[in-house]
């Protein structure tokens, strides 16, 4: 071993045992990409570090360069005739070796070589299958539609039964309610009659009714005599006048001795056979008062009479 | 021979579908025939072997085309096939050489000097003094290499270990040939300075 060779052997040993030879080998595609500078900077650096330490990948790199370089130092021209001759030889080899033809190509060729009889048979089979499938589908469809109709009929019947039951319940409830309402109405009417009777009895007891006959226009001192016994708060005064239907309505004022109006009633209409004018007078203190009678809407004074409250 | 302009991906897909197989494959062949033939010529084979290897490559292409998944990667795939054809031939020739050597060198043992250093260091039966010296030399060389800048170290390794040409180193590292030469000169100078007591001759 020469001295130069010794250094080379040690360099190889150092290269084999250095850390930089870690990592997987490069694929052919990666080496092609490396040669074409199609890697990222990081990928390129990692590939370069691996190549420095890997004899196998260096050989691949050298081959890739030989593959990619268009001409290089190869001065010998490759003619079209040479290529054609090579093609003829290659195609003859490919054709003569049946196993060489890819399976996919064979299938594709066989597909195109289908005879008309085979095609007709295939078509008739296809049509038969289609017809069978259609008939089966029709039968299944009819059976399904029949089942659905039965289900709907049953549902309707159940619904009708439910509605009838509900109607009878409503009718029963309605008659009971009507009867109850009628009873309540009768009870309310009876109560009302009872209360009205009681009120009328109370009114006739508590409010005294006084009747006064006003025969002339200017009355006497005591044409009307009123008395409010006990706690009585009012009295009803019935005035009998000579021509009660001369005016459609009348008005009445009661004034005290100082001329102040202490009671007033208007819109009085004659009622009954005697044409009496009835109105309510609140409780007055004992004393003398004057009662003025007016006729019509224009309030024409018809007379003035004396009232004695005692 | 220049093939008319067509989309190679479309051509390959048509072949895979069984459409116009002959004309399409003829187009592919015409497009890459010269490239493959030159590839084998550069390996130093004789013209007949080059033609045979080229044909073997295209037969493999024809057989394997249906299994090619990425049509865009056809050229890388073609290269892989050509590389495998070349590797197969090299391996078969190496096997022939090995069997010839066994017959002719019957009984002769390989000299201990030719064993790789790393193997000898691991050999327990080797002379301990020699092993210790070789180990020290190896460590010193490794240290000296580590002191070199990365690009310079890689240039030296590619040159000395893999015997790459300046042009190949420049192509691999993406630098100019002159830069490669300068790196190698500097590396040789630095290694001689550090390892002169261990190696009589240091050629980078």
Q: Which percent bin holds the helix content of chain A? A: 40-55%
Number of helices of chain B: 9
The Cα radius of gyration of chain A reads 67 Å
Strand content of the residues of chain A, in percent? Answer: 15-25%
- How many distinct beta strands of chain B? 0
Structural category of chain A is alpha/beta
Main β-sheet of chain A: number of strands, strand sense, barrel status?
5 strands, mixed
The residue-averaged pLDDT of chain A reads: 84
Task: Spell the H/E element sequence of chain B.
Answer: HHHHHHHHH
Q: Main interface pair? A: A-B, 68 and 66 residues
- What gross morphology of chain A would you assign? elongated
What structural category characterises the helix and strand content of chain B?
Answer: mainly alpha
Give the termini separation of chain B: 43 Å
The biggest sheet of chain B amounts to: none
Secondary structure blueprint with pairings:
The complex is a heterodimer of chains A (310) and B (204).
Chain A: H1 3-17, H2 28-35, H3 41-53, H4 55-68, H5 80-96, H6 103-112, H7 116-206, E1 209-214, E2 224-226, E3 234-241, E4 250-255, E5 261-268, E6 277-282, E7 287-295, E8 300-309
Parallel strand pairs in A: 1-3, 2-8
Antiparallel strand pairs in A: 3-6, 4-5, 4-7, 7-8
Helix pairs in contact in A: 2-4, 3-4
Chain B: H1 8-16, H2 21-42, H3 47-64, H4 74-104, H5 117-122, H6 128-147, H7 150-160, H8 166-173, H9 177-195
């Amino acid at each position: 071993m020469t001295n130069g060779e010794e250094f080379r052997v040690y360099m190889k040993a150092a290269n084999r045992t250095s850390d930089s030879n870690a990592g997987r080998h490069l694929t052919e595609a990666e080496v092609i990409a490396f040669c074409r500078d199609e890697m990222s900077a990081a990928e390129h650096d990692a590939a370069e570090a691996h190549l420095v330490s890997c004899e196998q990948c260096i050989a691949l790199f050298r081959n890739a360069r030989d593959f990619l370089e268009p001409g290089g130092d190869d001065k010998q021209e490759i003619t079209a005739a040479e290529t054609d001759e090579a093609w003829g030889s290659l195609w003859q080899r490919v054709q003569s070796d049946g196993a060489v033809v890819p399976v996919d190509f064979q299938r594709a060729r066989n597909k195109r070589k289908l005879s008309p009889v085979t095609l007709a048979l295939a078509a008739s089979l296809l049509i038969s299958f289609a017809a069978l499938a259609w008939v089966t589908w029709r039968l299944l469809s009819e059976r399904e539609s029949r089942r659905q109709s039965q289900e709907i009929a049953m549902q309707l019947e159940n619904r009708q039964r439910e509605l009838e039951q509900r109607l009878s319940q409503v009718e029963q409830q309605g008659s009971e309610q009507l009867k109850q309402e009628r009873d309540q109405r009768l009870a309310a009417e009876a109560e009302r009659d009872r209360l009205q009777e009681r009120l009328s009895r109370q009114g006739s007891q508590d409010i005294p009714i006084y009747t006064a006959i006003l025969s002339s226009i200017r009355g006497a001192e005591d044409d009307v005599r009123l008395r409010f016994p006990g706690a009585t708060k009012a009295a009803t005064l019935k005035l009998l006048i000579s021509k009660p239907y001369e005016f459609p309505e009348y008005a009445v004022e009661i004034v005290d001795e100082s001329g102040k109006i202490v009671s007033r009633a208007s819109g009085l209409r004659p009622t009954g056979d005697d044409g009496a004018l009835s109105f309510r007078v609140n409780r007055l203190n004992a004393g003398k008062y004057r009662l003025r009678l007016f006729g019509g809407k224009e309030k024409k004074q018809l007379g003035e009479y004396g009232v004695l409250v005692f | 021979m220049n093939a008319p302009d067509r989309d190679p991906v479309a051509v390959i897909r048509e072949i895979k579908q069984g459409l116009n197989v002959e004309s399409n494959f003829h187009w592919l062949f015409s497009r890459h025939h010269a490239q493959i033939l030159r590839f084998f010529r550069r390996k130093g084979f004789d013209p007949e072997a080059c033609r045979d290897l080229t044909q073997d490559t295209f037969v493999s292409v024809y057989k394997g085309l249906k299994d090619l998944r990425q049509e865009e990667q056809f050229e890388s795939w073609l290269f892989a096939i050509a590389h495998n054809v070349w590797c197969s031939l090299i391996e078969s020739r190496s096997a022939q050489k090995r069997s010839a050597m066994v017959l002719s060198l019957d009984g002769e043992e390989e000299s201990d000097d030719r064993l790789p250093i790393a193997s000898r260091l691991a050999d327990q039966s080797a002379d301990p003094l020699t092993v210790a010296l070789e180990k020290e030399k190896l460590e010193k060389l490794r240290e000296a290499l580590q002191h070199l800048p990365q690009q310079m170290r890689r240039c030296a390794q590619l040159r000395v270990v893999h015997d790459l040409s300046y042009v190949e180193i420049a192509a691999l590292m993406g630098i100019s040939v002159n830069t490669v030469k300068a790196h190698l000169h500097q590396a040789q100078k630095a290694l001689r300075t550090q390892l002169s007591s261990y190696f009589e001759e240091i050629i980078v």
